[in-house]
Amino acid sequence: xxxxxxxxxxxxxxxxxxxxxxxxxxxxxxxxxxxxxxxxxxxxxxxxxxxxxxxxxxxxxxxxxxxxxxxxxxxxx
Length: 77
Description:
This protein is mainly alpha-helical. It is built from four helices and no strands. It is 65% helix and 0% strand.
């Protein structure tokens, strides 16, 4: 399959399938996709620590729908 054919097929994929491709590309690139990534190493470390905490303590997190509802209620929509 050519690059052109791949690019033509991407819009036809489900969001889950596109995310799977993003993850594979990140894996192939060694992590972050953006070469000119605006995040500092400290910020990346903080994100990694928070993701690890969520994985270790899933009961302390809330679903995105609930978080969005709370943010909308607090800051307006």
